[in-house]
Amino acid sequence: MLKKIMIYEQTDDYILRAKTGWGMRFENQVGWFVGYVEKGDEVYFFATNLETKNPEEGFRSRIEITYNILRELGII
């Protein structure tokens, strides 16, 4: 059940399962995007942690940065 809930994106080539989070109790807020990609028989884990003073920018950036890295590595 948890694997179904965590699907963030699914294509014919891969399944990306992930969870986002945000901590606001700090002067610099912290956002994260963690999960894994299943591609064929391979599994790739990732964890992106972002510290920012601009929550609006950081909210989008944690996911965009992760996707850019996964693309650059040829995982997605």
Count of strand segments: 4
Q: Write down the overall mean pLDDT.
A: 92
> Topology as H/E string?
HEEEEH
The dominant shape is elongated
Poorly predicted ranges = none
Q: Round the Cα radius of gyration to an integer and report it.
A: 13 Å
Largest sheet: 4 strands, antiparallel
Domain count: the total is: 1
Strand proportion? over 45%
The helix fraction, in percent, is 25-40%
Protein architecture, described:
This protein is an alpha+beta fold and about 80 residues long. It has one domain. Helices cover about 30% and strands about 45% of the residues. The chain contains 2 helices and 4 strands, in the order αββββα. It has helices at about 1-5, 55-70, and strands at about 5-10, 15-25, 30-40, 40-50. Strands 1-2-3-4 form a 4-stranded antiparallel sheet. About 10% of the residues are buried. The model has no long low-confidence stretch (mean pLDDT about 90).
Summarize the structure.
This protein is α+β, with helices and mostly antiparallel strands and about 80 residues long. Helix content is about 30%, strand content about 45%. The protein has 2 helices and 4 strands; from the N terminus they run αββββα.
